[in-house]
Amino acid sequence: MNKKEIRVVLDTIADMFPEAHCELHHSNPFELTIAVLLSAQCTDEMVNKVTVDLFEKYKTPQDYLNVSLEEVESDIRRIGLYRNKAKNIRKLCELIIEKYDGEIPRLHSELVELPGVGRKTANVVVSNAFGVPAIAVDTHVERVSKRLALANWKDSVLEVEKKLMKKIPKEEWTETHHRLIFFGRYHCKAQNPACDICPLLDLCREGKKRMKKKDLRKDK
């Protein structure tokens, strides 16, 4: 995909989703970190249903340590992998109390050292909580990037991130991340993407393939 085509993609998704934003409910960097940690292999919608009570009960890292592991597990039981996530939450809270005076660190290199916090989570936190440009590659961003040939089919998540960072102006990283998520979540879905009404169909190798198959079925 050349620079002109990339610009078309960026401008089109900007027109489609001008208000794209982080859909995980939070009021501070600590809550955002917990929410993103919980979102692994789980929908934002479910995370928000759980955190509405969770964040009312647990205001600080110490609050998670003042109760048993079993109680934290019980409070997030509706979330997938809740046992492992509960352990990571408590370990994360212990570490930020011991090393960062109870505050979420601002540096990406420090965030990825926190239990349960990978590169994607760190990117979400630095960009949304601290205003540092970043592109977090989740399942939606990865799928859309590969369908639109912004990345190769066999690229790893890290390779997708690096290619997007190279092709997209740095000042647009964060907003593009949100728009790609919205585009993938509400339009270019994993199953039944809206190819027939997609303004990017001419640039989408997956869309063209799907529409060709659809036309062949009609001709039979």
UniProtKB/TrEMBL annotation:
Cofactor note: Binds 1 [4Fe-4S] cluster.
Keyword list, A-Z: 4Fe-4S, DNA damage, DNA repair, DNA-binding, Endonuclease, Glycosidase, Hydrolase, Iron, Iron-sulfur, Lyase, Metal-binding, Nuclease
InterPro entries recorded: DNA_glycosylase (IPR011257), Endonuclease-III-like_CS2 (IPR004036), Endonuclease3_FeS-loop_motif (IPR003651), Endouclease-III_FeS-bd_BS (IPR004035), HhH-GPD_domain (IPR003265), HhH_base_excis_C (IPR023170), HhH_motif (IPR000445), Nth (IPR005759)
Keyword DNA-binding attributed: yes
PROSITE patterns linked to this entry: ENDONUCLEASE_III_1, ENDONUCLEASE_III_2
CC cofactor: [4Fe-4S] cluster
Pfam name, any one: HHH
Gene Ontology MF term list: endonuclease activity
Domain (HhH-GPD): residue spans on this chain: 38-186
Catalytic function, reaction form: 2'-deoxyribonucleotide-(2'-deoxyribose 5'-phosphate)-2'-deoxyribonucleotide-DNA = a 3'-end 2'-deoxyribonucleotide-(2,3-dehydro-2,3-deoxyribose 5'-phosphate)-DNA + a 5'-end 5'-phospho-2'-deoxyribonucleoside-DNA + H(+)
Protein residues bound to [4Fe-4S] cluster: 188, 195, 198, 204
Known EC number: 4.2.99.18
Family as reported in the entry's similarity comment: Belongs to the Nth/MutY family.
Functional note: DNA repair enzyme that has both DNA N-glycosylase activity and AP-lyase activity. The DNA N-glycosylase activity releases various damaged pyrimidines from DNA by cleaving the N-glycosidic bond, leaving an AP (apurinic/apyrimidinic) site. The AP-lyase activity cleaves the phosphodiester bond 3' to the AP site by a beta-elimination, leaving a 3'-terminal unsaturated sugar and a product with a terminal 5'-phosphate.
Protein name per its UniProtKB record: Endonuclease III
Gene: nth
